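Q: Can I see a sequence and its folded structure?
A: Here is a first one.
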Amino acid sequence: AATGVWTLQLPDGVSGDGLPTAGPPTAGPLLPSLPSGAVLDLEQRRLEGDGNVGYRLWRSAGAMCRWMRRNEGAVRGARVLELGAGTGAVGIFAAALGAREVVLTDGEAGLLPLLASNARRNRPLLSHGTEVTAGRWRFGDDPPACARAGAFDLVLGTDITYSVNTERDALCGTLRRLLEIGPDNGRAARCLIAHEHRRADMFDVEAVLHFANEPAAAWDARDVCLGTFLASAREHGLRVAPLVTEAGRCVQRAPGVVEMTTDLTVFEVSRDELHADPTL
């Protein structure tokens, strides 16, 4: 199955007849096309085990790229940093939209060759003079040399909020540090993150059958991982505000088999000193 598409086998005797069986597929092209109509050429790799998530393209990258397509003015000419870049899709998309410089970073050293390779593969889509570099940056560590030369206009990350499950405060510590860099050429740094909601009841049969295609009561409802991230953000003096949410979809693909995608949200992280924990 495509990344971000979930399949639920219903218990014997339970019918999914109330769900739609037709309509748009639960997962189409993950990334939008560029204004020219071209699409990124990205290498992905499937590795054995659970440590391969960064080598694949996930739906949240598409949500971020769609946001950039709608807001090209914020990208064109910008200096862009991608955190947890994985395949580099989001940063390379920004470069293809006219960013003047893109720095791709990931905490896994084994991903750096893939980032460099994908940047080379898409070089024909970039403007002359656009610079794309890559370096290793684990959340909570000092930035690599490629990320130290001045402020960034845009800091982007997709599906990086899940790092709070292993190191609760490392990501928010890194974001706070980046937002402290200050303005560059009169523009304050912005930090945008795309998050795929994996809500606590996403595999609850009753919830799927009765509420799967209804909007959530709140953008952060029942999302335990996001809740942990938001708590850490508040303690680090960061404000988190949703910009756009794309609704997931749930369909019955076969008798007793439900296929679903979950909601995607792009949100902005900014400074909020009023609620910061003074001990951090």
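Q: Show me another, different protein.
A: A second, unrelated one:
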Amino acid sequence: RISLPSSLLSESVCFKQEQQQQQSLTIREFGSSKNKKEEATLSYDERKAAAKEKRRQLHQTKVNRLNSLKTRRSNSPKDVQKTKFHSYFDTLRRRDEYLDRKARRCGKPWKVLVSAVVERLPVVTPDAPQWEEEYWEMKSMLMENSGKEFPMELANAGLSATSSMAGDTNAVYDRDDLLEQLKKQGFTPAPRETEADRTGQIQTLDRQLKTRVYLAIVPSSASSSTNTQQWSFPTVQVNDDETLLSAAKRSITSSIGTKLEFWTPSNCPLGVQLTPYEEEEDSEYFGTKTFFIKVQLDDEGTIEENENVVQDWGWLTREEMTEKVAVEQG
């Protein structure tokens, strides 16, 4: 046997690889020329049908791939709140449009009213839900067991030198512990439930501090714009020479006096409510069109009850307002 040097062996291997590459290129060129010759023999309609079939196969392959990539997000329900809102709002809008067309056919105008929605914002923070309480409890436990140790200068930043918390640099305090430490320093927290909440007094702003309350009145029979003695917002009829905002301010001053300070965030009404009169009721108006203007309480002030205009009044939450209206309407 004759042993060849390694250089000659490597040159022979490279030569064989070059021959294989040239053969494959020759086969590809022959195949492509063959396809071109076959396409040249086809008619225009046959080439068009073949191209269309190829596009159809590519589209079907894409659809099959997308169907195979189902994820949890694509299977979850979408636009739930949006659909719920449109199911309510679209029905109400079609009803209002129908009433407007009916009023024009009857040739009667609407009686335009304005209701002032006087709102007092929450005074204290609302109660934390159960999951949030559990979260802070777990976070306090984790920080106490595996938290980082900070230097004395950072741990006591912002604390007084006489504070009982200044000695422990690694202590972790939750809300209850911090409140206890503040009580030792003379801090007295405001009550979250007042005496008015326990007695059910509604003619005071010192109630339901954790939520929003709204001014509601029971108009007297002589001053009622809607001929009803029910709980409602201060409401007046709009004069020809005033705007909706001016009428809303007039409804407040005429009902509870001028000592209540308030401000209006916008001239645009919150919404509108159309209430047609009964068919047997003989009136020059087709019904009432009530616009609601939002008004926020700026300062507590005092309410001067006008007995000729207001029969009863109170600061009610949204749930209390809904409950009273539901009881009155049966």
